[in-house]
Amino acid sequence: MKLDFNEIEKTVINKFKGGEKDFNAHISFDGMNKILHGTLEVGASIGLHKHETNSEIIYIISGDARCIYDDTVEFLKPGQCHYCPKGHTHSLINNSDSENLVFFAVISEQ
Length: 110
Prior knowledge:
Number of helices: 0
Oligomer: single chain
């Protein structure tokens, strides 16, 4: 199935999961899985949260990310991927002073 994120309406969520500023995303959801193209502007983040029933894969397209994963901190650049398995916690933070963080994510129910 082809997904064209340019044709999917943008969703804006303020302070998503307790984060800072707006999380902008074009989200496809089939009832079990979310596939999204997301943007966090400078100073924005997705708050720390636990994946109780699903896992998430985040692929960085552009910008610099800081990810808190359980008790560790990871720094991600374009072309790198973060994986949060079911039962673990993570957050995603735009780690740049001047550039949006753009990423692709898949959240799969298990």
